[in-house]
Amino acid sequence: MNRTQLKRSSILRMALAGSETMNPDGDGETFILRAVRIGAVVALYWFVSITMVFLNSYLLDNRELDAPLFVTFYQCLVTVGLCWLMQLLSKVCPGLIDFPSVKFDLKTSREVLPLSIVFISMITFNNLCLKYVGVAFYTVGRSLSTVFNVLLSYIILKQTTSLQAIMCCGVILGGFWLGVEQEGMTGNLSWTGVFFGVVASACVSLNAIFTKKVMPAVEGNIWKLSYYNNINACVLFLPLILLFGELGSLASFSRSSDLKFWGMMTLGGVFGFAIGYVTGLQIKFTSPLTHNVSGTAKACAQTVIAVVYNSSSKSLLWWTSNMMVLVGSSAYTWVKSLEMKKTPQRVPPDSAKEQLLPEEKGNLEV
């Protein structure tokens, strides 16, 4: 009896003080410390992701400067600069910062080029969707990435999908169509934005497929891929900016010497770079499935913030469409994670990336 009471009191002290609680890795980290660390990482991911979306919306909604390609080009340029900076800092502080050493190689750049073409299409149409539909409808407008992932995986890779996963896609499709109908009833629907959102969703799926193919060219390192991808993107954007006449908009822009404007532009590029880091960090401290759940909750919070900020009034069916998209996406990830556990020998090395939210699949390369 005394031994039982002693065990119970010891367990209670361990739970409250955490002095003896081990984490799964067995390194002596307390449960409370680990919970606080995970909470901090999740909060950081939410902050970076939500801020990035609102910041991009602000930059693209600039009535004085109608140059979405230039805005995207500049963010890619900032990412290249940050890659160089991180390389330098990793040499100066090797124990603090871990970043691969990358020297530009023309052969590797050519091998990454097919992905870069898909990449610039993805980020351009993604930003154009955000420009025309706004943050509140953005989750629904860009919701078909999972559906295209299933469709294109079958067409290009000949990969079949389970009935449960297809049913999840059906829920997402239903939420998308309901959302479009409800947004149309408010009079705020932009069919141009919906079109850009659908194309962006298809490009996200193509980006995931092409990423698998070019990964060996960069030794499987996502930061090397980001470096080459963004260098190629900067070069590819230049003729597009000329072709679509954005130089004229830039020449007539009254705030071209405004440090605040360029500071916001640079900050947008910094957050675009940071989302790849915090996404990987959240997966490292939790799991791909938990990351998806966190991302779903973040998307819901992001939508609520946008509606409150704009003082909008939305119908019950409008909110239902958002929940259908979010629940369907989370259910799809959960189904795929169960399937991967059943067939571990078939899981590719980058399977964790397959369980990311559509926007993170792209942003890991932004």
Rg for CA atoms: 22 Å
DSSP, total strands: 0
Low-pLDDT windows of residues: 11-22, 345-366
Continuous helix count: 15
* Gross morphology: globular
Biggest β-sheet, characterized? Answer: none
Oligomer: single chain
Between the first and last Cα atoms, what is the distance in angstroms?
62 Å
- Residues in helix, %: over 70%
What's the pLDDT, averaged over the residues?
A: 82
N-to-C SSE string, H for helix and E for strand: HHHHHHHHHHHHHHH
Please state the structural category. mainly alpha
Strand content: under 5%
Feature tags:
366 residues; mainly alpha; globular; disordered C terminus
Provide a descriptive summary of the structure in words.
The chain has 15 helices and no strands. By secondary structure, it is mainly α. α3 packs antiparallel against α9 and α4 packs across α9. The C terminus is likely disordered.
Outline:
The protein has 366 residues and is mainly α. The protein has 15 helices and no strands. Helix 3 (68-92) runs antiparallel to helix 9 and helix 6 (145-157) packs across helix 8.
Annotate the secondary structure layout.
Blueprint: H1 2-17, H2 31-60, H3 68-92, H4 106-133, H5 138-141, H6 145-157, H7 163-186, H8 191-214, H9 222-243, H10 246-251, H11 259-285, H12 288-309, H13 316-342, H14 351-354, H15 358-363
